[in-house]
């Protein structure tokens, strides 16, 4: 009993059972309609009508023979009643004896009967056929309606039809229903089996089959597999990158601390150098920890984002002034160009300052002496089709006009970024320094990832475009309220 219940708990079995019930119900309705039809026009009626038509055909096709004589002979041989009516429906002759009740001329009904039936003056029912002759007279051949029993009708007419045709139709329909159930359920079963292997890295996409809705479900599942595996790979890479990034400073800290402890750093200068390295590497690890914590909060949406009116030109000029000593030392000019119609932007000023500080710092690192870094801000009144490769797009708040945006770009005249590197520069711990020919000390590879998250938190988007040998431009689009 338990096995039987389990067998019909699967989707395929339930689909097949549902189809089977629908088919049996349809066949049952057909059987009822067929039985009622046979009840109204059984085989005995049909046989009688065919006999009357045969007699009628014989009389109509007589050759130079008096119709009355032919009618009497046919009535005697075939046990029927032949009547002839004039064109105005008056009885001319009747092969029945004078003792029999007269039969009126059959009148056609608006709603025709299933069998031609007329009743005599005593209410007895007669089956008949009628034919209009060339001389406008009407030939009627009639016979008393035969009596039958429902049992005979059921056994003689109904059962043979149902047993042969109904059984064949039922078996064929059940086979088709089984194929349909498999067509729908098999792809879903594959999705279930694949889901049980998740979140294994060995999980493979499911072949797309079945109805349109099942195909859409399979595509969504395959997309989920791809995203999950990508997320797992990202987590593995993240752990590996963090371990790698922490290994170098920890090794330096451990080595120089050991040198101080065992007396290897036996001079004041050596101890000063050791403590300086320990302090620098500890600061580097501290900054990395703060960046990782910042990224985690931005990912979770729990970062402290305080929105307030921001004077964008003043903010950009402050960022540029911050790098004045460094730019003078490297011989790189930093220019700020702000449009006159810049509106007040509602944003987190500290976070935006962090964004542009990071971008300018990167630009300084990879711009040769004599180069120029340009920070430009302008208002876009409509969606611009730019060649930038956008890495994030989020829907702007309903209170914001999505066609009203401020574009802030940070451009340099460095070596540019290769196409292969552009797809990864916003990934965590990814460093494209070698490809850009930089010689400065490399960062942790978290800066641009944090920039992307901050811009996303403001409902904006960030992209990059560049030409090798000519420079790189980072473009930030921030929505603003009218």
Which terms summarize this structure?
482 residues; 52% helix; 5-stranded antiparallel sheet; rod-shaped; disordered N terminus; Helix Hairpins; 6-stranded mixed sheet; alpha+beta
Helix-strand layout with pairing:
Elements: H1 2-7, H2 11-40, H3 43-60, H4 67-78, E1 81-85, E2 91-94, E3 117-119, E4 125-132, E5 138-144, H5 150-196, H6 212-261, H7 268-300, E6 308-310, H8 312-322, H9 324-330, E7 333-338, E8 345-347, H10 349-366, E9 372-380, E10 389-390, E11 405-411, H11 419-422, H12 433-436, H13 447-457, E12 461-467, E13 471-479
Parallel strand pairs: 7-9
Antiparallel strand pairs: 1-2, 1-5, 3-4, 4-5, 6-8, 9-11, 10-12, 11-13, 12-13
Helix pairs in contact: 2-5, 5-6, 6-7, 7-13, 8-10, 10-13
Short recap of the structure:
This protein has 482 residues and is α+β, with helices and mostly antiparallel strands. 52% of the residues lie in helices and 15% in strands.
Could you walk me through the main structural features you see in this protein, from its secondary elements to its overall organization?
The structure is a single chain. By secondary structure, the protein is α+β, with helices and mostly antiparallel strands. It folds into 4 domains: 2-40 and 151-191; 65-147, no CATH class; 212-300, Helix Hairpins (Orthogonal Bundle), CATH 1.10.287; 308-479, Histidine kinase-like ATPase, C-terminal domain (Heat Shock Protein 90, 2-Layer Sandwich), CATH 3.30.565.10. It is 52% helix and 15% strand. It has helices at 2-7, 11-40, 43-60, 67-78, 150-196, 212-261, 268-300, 312-322, 324-330, 349-366, 419-422, 433-436, 447-457; strands at residues 81-85, 91-94, 117-119, 125-132, 138-144, 308-310, 333-338, 345-347, 372-380, 389-390, 405-411, 461-467, 471-479. A 6-stranded mixed beta sheet has the order 7-9-11-13-12-10, covered by helices on one side. A 5-stranded antiparallel beta sheet has the order 2-1-5-4-3. The chain has a two-stranded antiparallel ribbon with strand order 6-8. A hairpin with a 5-residue loop joins strand 3 (117-119) and strand 4 (125-132). The longest helix has 50 residues, at 212-261. The chain is rod-shaped and about 150 Å long. Residues 1-8, 383-402 and 434-441 have low confidence and may be disordered.
């Amino acid at each position: 009993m338990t096995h039987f219940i389990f067998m019909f708990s699967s989707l395929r079995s339930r689909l097949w059972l549902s189809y089977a019930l629908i088919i049996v119900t349809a066949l049952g309705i057909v059987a009822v309609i067929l039985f009622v039809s046979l009840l109204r026009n059984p085989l005995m009626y049909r046989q009688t009508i065919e006999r009357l038509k045969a007699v009628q055909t014989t009389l109509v096709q007589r050759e130079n023979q008096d119709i009355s004589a032919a009618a009497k002979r046919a009535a005697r041989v075939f046990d029927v009643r032949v009547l002839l009516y004039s064109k105005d429906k008056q009885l001319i002759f009747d092969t029945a004896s004078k003792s029999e009740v007269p039969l009126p001329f059959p009148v056609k009904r608006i709603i025709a009967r299933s069998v031609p039936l007329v009743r005599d003056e005593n209410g007895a029912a007669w089956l008949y056929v009628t034919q209009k002759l060339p001389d406008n007279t009407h030939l009627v051949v009639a016979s008393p309606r035969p009596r039958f029993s429902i049992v005979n009708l059921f056994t003689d007419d109904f059962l043979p039809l149902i047993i042969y045709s109904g059984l064949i139709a039922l078996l064929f329909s059940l086979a088709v229903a089984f194929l349909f159930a498999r067509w729908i359920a098999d792809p879903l079963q594959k999705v279930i089996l694949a889901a049980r292997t998740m979140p294994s890295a060995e999980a493979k996409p499911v072949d797309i089959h079945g109805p349109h809705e099942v195909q859409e479900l399979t595509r969504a599942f395959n997309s989920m597999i791809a995203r999950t595996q990508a997320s797992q790979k990202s987590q593995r890479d993240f752990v590996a990158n963090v371990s790698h990034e922490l290994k170098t400073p920890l090794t330096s800290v451990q080595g120089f601390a050991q040198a101080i402890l065992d007396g290897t750093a036996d001079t004041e200068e050596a101890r000063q150098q050791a403590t300086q390295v320990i302090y620098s590497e500890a600061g580097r690890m501290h900054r990395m920890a703060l960046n990782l914590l910042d990224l985690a909060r931005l990912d979770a949406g729990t970062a402290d984002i305080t929105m307030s009116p921001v004077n964008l030109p003043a903010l950009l000029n402050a960022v540029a002034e911050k790098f004045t000593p460094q730019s003078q030392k490297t011989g790189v000019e930093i220019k700020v160009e702000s449009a006159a119609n810049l509106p007040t932007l509602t944003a987190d000023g500290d976070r935006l300052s962090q964004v542009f500080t990071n971008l300018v710092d990167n630009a300084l690192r990879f711009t040769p002496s004599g180069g120029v870094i340009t920070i430009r801000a302008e208002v876009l009144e409509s969606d611009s089709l730019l060649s930038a490769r956008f890495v994030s797009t989020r829907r702007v708040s309903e209170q914001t006009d999505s066609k009203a945006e401020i574009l802030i770009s940070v451009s340099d005249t460095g070596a540019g970024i290769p196409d292969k590197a552009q797809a990864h520069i916003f990934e965590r711990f990814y460093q494209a320094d070698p490809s850009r020919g930089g010689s400065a000390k490399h960062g942790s590879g978290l800066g641009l990832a944090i920039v992307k998250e901050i811009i996303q938190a403001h409902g904006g988007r960030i992209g990059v475009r560049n030409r090798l040998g000519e420079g790189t431009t980072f473009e930030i689009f921030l929505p603003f309220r009218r």
